[in-house]
Amino acid sequence: MSRCWRTSRATAALAVGILLALPAAADAADDRMSRVLGEALFERAWVPAPSSTKANDGLGPLFNARACVSCHVGLVRAPTRVGADGVVTGETLVLRLSDAAGRPDPAYGTQIQTAAVPGFAPDGLVRRTREGFAPHALARGPLAATTRTGGRIAPALRGLGRLEAVPDALLAAAADPDDADGDGISGRFVGRFGHKAQARDLAEMTAIAFATDLGMSTTRRPAPEGDCPDPACRAAPHGGDAQTPEIADEIVALVAAYLAAVPPPPAPEPDPVGAALFAQAGCAACHVPALPTPDGPVRAYTNLLVHDLGPGLDGGATEPGIAPTEWRTAPLWGLSRALADGAGLLHDGRAATVAEAIAAHGGEAARARAAFDGLAAEDRERLLAFVERL
After folding, report:
1. What pLDDT does residue 328 have?
2. Residues 245 and 147 in one domain
3. 26-34 — which CB contacts under 8 Å span 24+ positions?
4. Which DSSP state fits 271?
5. Residues 214 and 186 both lie in one domain
6. How many domains would you assign to the chain?
7. How many CA atoms does the CB half-sphere of 164 hold within 13 Å?
8. What pLDDT score does 53 carry?
9. Containing domain of residue 225, as a range?
10. How far apart are CA 275 and CA 389, in angstroms?
């Protein structure tokens, strides 16, 4: 991360101290101070309740990480670490749970929590298998018969403020849920962040992460036990109460402000021929090169709409109102960094190359995949090189 976007540990600690000692300071601070405080909160490790500082506690009882930065290392898409036994050892991939309608597992909730506060056992572990990722060594018996699982890699977090600036009206107008134009593409506007577009703005995305990854409540996600339906979790000590969530709205706003200010990945050198082939194959129908905002175009290569990509990209678990085969169009900016880091592509990293990712696309993307396959060999290579530099 560049120097201007990373405070030192001492600065981060001081910023948090100011926030905790003077809760109103954030309201009066300028945008710069809000970003500094937000970054400090993004990097801080939260602790279980009860602690000596009320605004500092509430982690868990079950969780996947103690800090936001643990999952989003460097704010980029990071590789999934797997041990010799196939068990996932890092925090950059989680295993989501739901039935086909997006309802959580009755015993384990929406996600396998791999860590716990003292006195509690984690849900279990996540293991890589030939088919993808699966739960391992579960603490409370098997999943429900209707529960489906799906690995999710923590997404890159650069340029999100630019995506948030795209007007809702523009995205709603671009949606074509009934495929009225007959082009085989019927995108829906649901939200703009998350693999399944489950968050409409950065504040909601931040609140979801606090609840599902850290087990901490907000006014948007008030359950104090986070993602743990077990009665023991509900009865555990929490950092808030029925009137006061563990994470105040001001903290959510500061983290969101920090993320909104992080600039997009650097843009590659223009390649008009590659761009023309990208459009000719139909890739640009969903991976729209640029979306307008009041502050100029955002060149993220996405339309932020949800599309059905067919059974080859059935992600197992899903969100309410979103089919297991539906996905928000992933922004392609920063893809070159993900490839260089070996982070893998698609929602769970199953594709090692752009060509593998294209081959997995079906459903509304079937025509584009067929058009790509039908290109002359040299044109396919030029198109792949264009995407790999994004």
Report:
1. 98
2. yes
3. 26/250, 26/253, 26/254, 27/250, 31/257, 31/261, 34/253, 34/254, 34/257, 34/258
4. -
5. no
6. 2
7. 22
8. 67
9. 1-155+202-262
10. 11
